[in-house]
Amino acid sequence: MEYRDIWEYQLNLDQQETAQFVRHVWETKDSYFDYFFFDENCSYRLLALLDASSERIDVTDDFQFTAIPVDTIRALQHRGLIDSSEYRPSAASDMEHKSQQASTLVLNTATQLVEQNAAIATLLSGLSEQEQIQALELAYAYARYLAVQKRQANPQLRKRTLAILSARAKHPASAGFSDIPTPAYRDEQGHLSQRISLTAGSTLSDQGSKSKADHLGFLDLSYRPAFHDVMDLPQGFDHGAQIQMGHLNLRLWDGGKVRVQSFQAVDILSLSEQTHFQRPIAWSVSGGLERFIGADAELFGYLHTGFGKAWLTPAGRFYGLAQAQLLADNQFRKGVQLSLGPRLGWLWQGNRLQGQLEANWQGLSGFDKTKRSTLQAKLGVKLSRNAQLRLQAKSQHFKLNSDSNEAHEVSLGINWYF
Fold first, then answer.
1. CA end-to-end span of the chain, whole Å?
2. What contacts 60, CB < 8 A, 6 or more positions away?
3. Has residue 183 been placed in a domain?
4. Minimal CB count within 10 Å: which of 47, 132, 319, 352?
5. Domain coverage including residue 62
6. Contact, 351 vs 382, CB < 8 A?
7. Is 179 a member of any domain?
8. What is the pLDDT of residues 315-339, one digit of tens each?
C-alpha cells in the first residue's frame, strides 16, 4: 500500500524450528512491547522471535545500542541463516519501468484514459493495436496508483478502472513490455551503516579590502552512527535520498585548538524525481549545531527545511528547493535569524564517481538582516565497498548593508564504513 519495493529473504529454518517460531508468535500475541526507534524497534523484535525458535540462533546480542533493519539482515547472513533472496518490485516501480518503454503519445493517452470521461474507444482511436494495449495497461497501473495515493474510496475512479480493464480484455495480445530487472545490488550489499572520516584541509577568510586574509589549516575527525548521505557510495541505496543522524565532527586547527565543528542531530533529504505519472515533492529537513568557516567562528544552532522539485536526466539529478533557515545564537542580532531563499543543485551518483554542486542564497531575512549565500562542490571516488575518497570545496559570503566578507574552505578526506 505504500508502493515500496521489497526484498524477501528465505530463511533455512527446519520444520521443528519453524513450528517453534509459530508457537512463540502465538505465545506473545497478547504481549505489549515499548517501541524504541533506534534499538528495540520492529526489526529487533523479529530477531527476538527468531532467537526463541532455535538454540542455534542468537542474534539479538549483536544489537546493544542500535538495530538498523539492514544490519539485522546482515547478522542473519553472517550466521548462515539465509538461503536465498527475491526482489519484489512495487506497483509504482513496475509502472515507471513500463512507462520508460512507451512513446509520449501512449503516455498521454494513458493519462487521458484515467483523468477524462471521454469514451475509451475515442481516446484510443489514433493508436496502433500495440500502442492501444500499452496505453490500457499503463492507464490501469496509473489508476491503481491514484487510488492508493488518495487512500479513500472513489466510486468514479473505480468505475473508470473497471472500464479500462474491460477494454484491455478485448485485446488478447501482449503489451510487449519487458519485465522489470532485479537491481544489481540488494540493500544489505551497500556500504555498512556507521562511518568514520579523517579529513585535512585549509580555510581562507577575507574580511574585505581593508583586512588581511586569514589562512589556516585543519584536521577533521568525524563519526556518523547512521546512515547514508547522497554523496556516499550509492550501491544498495535509493538514489536521491539520504538520512543521517548523530553526525559529530571534531576539528583540530593549526596551533592545537580543538573544537566541535558541527553536530547533525538529523539530516534528511528526499530528491524523488518528476515522472510522467508521479509528481513527488522534493524536501529536506535538518537540525543541529554548526559553525561558519573560520577558526574564530562561534557555534550556533540551526534548523533547515525546504520543499521543491527534482528532475532526473542522463546528465544527472537536478533539484531546486525553497529553503527556510532558523539560526540561533548571540552572534546574530536579537539572537536569531529567520531567512528564506533558493537551494539549487546538481547530483551525480555513479558507481565509481559521485559529484554534487549546490548553491543556497538566503536573500529574505528577519531579525538579523545579514544576507548569506553558500556555494559548495563535492567529488567522491570509490576505493572499495566500504571506503571512499572525498574532495570538498565550500565558499560562504555574508553581506550586511555595504559591509561584506567571504570565507572559503577546501578539504580532502577518506571515509570508512563499518
1. 33
2. 44, 47, 48, 51
3. no
4. 352
5. 6-88
6. yes
7. no
8. 999 999 999 999 999 999 999 999 9
